[in-house]
Amino acid sequence: MGFFSEFKEFAVKGNAIDLAVGVVIGAAFGKIVNSIVEDVINPLIGMVTGGVDLTSLFVALDGKTYESLAKAKEAGAAVLAYGNLLNNIFQFLLVAMALFVVVKQINRLNRTAETKE
Question: Please, what is the angle between helix 82-116 and helix 14-36, to 10°?
Fold first, then answer.
């Protein structure tokens, strides 16, 4: 079997197509999760913490005080941008929870279909 015929067989298999669809949906879902974190969760946290924006939280490792994370980076300071880390953790947790719910529902539907057979 030649390279191109093997590739064609691989590309049109259900698994490869399912994977491609999953990647595209995942990319779109990532934008939604990012919007939820940036546009809903962060403002709520800011309201509770007196207007603090998570993404602006940082520690400059040179011991100096900087007006903002951008200014510290502009000055070439090494920084621990722990606010960005917290933001990314929230995004990960939202994605993980959403995927858990989806997988749980798919498994429930599969169990229901198996009991009907």
Answer: 130
- Predicted structure pTM score: 0.61
Residue 73: pLDDT above 90? yes
The CATH number given to whatever domain includes residue 50 is: 1.10.1200.120
Domain count, the chain: 1
* Residue numbers of the domain that contains 18: 3-116
In the chain, DSSP assigns E strands to 59-60, 79-80
φ/ψ of residue 18, rounded to 5: -60, -40
What's the average model confidence in pLDDT over 33-41?
A: 84
Distances (CA, A) of 105 to 16, 32, 47, 60: 23, 20, 34, 45
